[in-house]
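I'm stuck. Please check this protein.
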Amino acid sequence: MIFAGWLPAEAKDCFNPGERWNDTSGKHINAHGGCVLFEGGTYYWFGEDRNGFVSNGISCYSSVDLYNWTRIGIVFEASQAKDATTGKCTLERPKVIYNDMTGKWVMYIHWENGDGYGEAKVCVAISDKVEGPYVVSDVFRPNGHDSRDQTIFKDTDGKAYHFGSTDMNTNMNVALLSDDYLTTENNPVTETKILNGLKYEAPAIVKRGDTYFGIFSGCTGWAPNPGHSATTLDILGYWEPLRNFAIDNGNMTTYRSQSTYILKVAGYDNAYIYMGDRWDSSDVGGKSEYVWLPLSLRSGAPTVKWYDSWNMDVFVNSDRFVRIAAPVDGAVVRILDKYSDRWMSSKGNGFFIDDDNDDTNVEFRLESTSNPYVWHFIENKSGKYLESMFGALILSEGNGKPTQDWRLELEEDGCYAIQCVNDNKVLSVSGDLQLASTPLFMIKKGAAESQHFGLYFDADKYDYECADMFSAGYRADNLDKMRKQADFEASAGIEETLGGYGVKIVCTNPEGITINSETDTQMTMSVIEVSSGRRIFSDNVVIVSGKTSVAFPGMLTVGVYIVSLDNDTSHIISKIIIY
């Protein structure tokens, strides 16, 4: 007789976050607070194995597709680490890395004595094989610090670090591991406390290029809370707090989950999975479920969107859009909101943010102006110009008015504040929301947080220079460019230049300018007010050999201005000051 409970489980071909997840034998997967490694073509999932709240040890499952998992068994027995006084232990959040020097697999576990959370130690275990069995090496507090929710991270240079919530979960301690990974280096220069006073736990760390990203939860026991994120270029330096990485409905509880690990998917350049636990404190082992969702770093901030069901197809075009190194005249770009990882979009009336969707995402052709920091955005299909009228965004025919002039203020991470020259308001996402279909509008700079946008191009269609946006050099270059922009906009900051015709602006007054030229020519003259970036006027002028006086349409008020003269062969810029 064959009992239903012994029938092979139906193979899965997708993820269903939060739903019951069984292994290939049909039994509930019991691997909470864990991690997943890829070794020799196989994924290995390590996690807490529990009966209710009681720790049995650390379990391991294997898979070749991430959907279907076969139980290997308990690879580290709780009996190996039981406390001598209580005769038991609690094992949480196991993380495993490989040590290239010793050839050992090393596991770090949050360890308690089975009677509350007062011990706050780590248990270290080692194995010759990734699938175990693992043997206890030591139980200790990292450099004497209390350590609760924890993870370990192996860097690209082979060094490894322990992250642990410390000081009664007030701060996050980061400590370099010894060369054999079996303990922490007890050295002030290889240890630091980050995100101080923020009370983060449940750390998960990933690195792309030179940039580290961390995701965390708040401290609310078994109850879910809003997620947190942070980034740095120096793992032992300052970590900049970012926003909640969960961006859809349910973000205030991180989709009713708590972070445990960021899995980089094999076979893709930049595919990551957020691994979270949906805890049920009434039966941690039997009723807690798993929330696995795609994690994107494309915008420069970690973002996790909700899917009722998804599969690896979401990663197929994950590298289609890349950030452009710098605005280029004629380049076709899309505008990406940093914190929602969603595009400036339009369908019918109005603009909003939306997911990747060629039917709604707006492509703009960049058009340079005489001011190197002011651009036109021309909708690529219609040829109409993006314009801000009384705080509303519209598309209209080109009219030469400052309502169609857009100042791009560079930020350190390569995003921009996109500001209308006419009224100085900046592009913003309504209410700082991150949901698809949230409207875009214009508002005073600094009045909202969602005012950071990147310029991206379709790498399948165009071959522009792409930004090396996760490198340390990229941020250093941006800081230099920001200083140059500030200097330029403070005092025009551009030396007088001569064009091919030997044209030079030689004197100015409130009514007009005098131009010296070695030959006859025709040029377009523009006058820009430096303090606002506004184009005061633009007109075609005929220049004759010798001196040519060109009158302004009206007397300029006291201030600093840029006068530019342009034709097919020359571009002359001069700063003029009206006293």
User: Anything to note?
Assistant: The helical segments are 284-287, 472-491. The chain has a mean pLDDT of 92. The longest helix spans residues 472-491. The first strand starts at residue 32 and ends at 39.
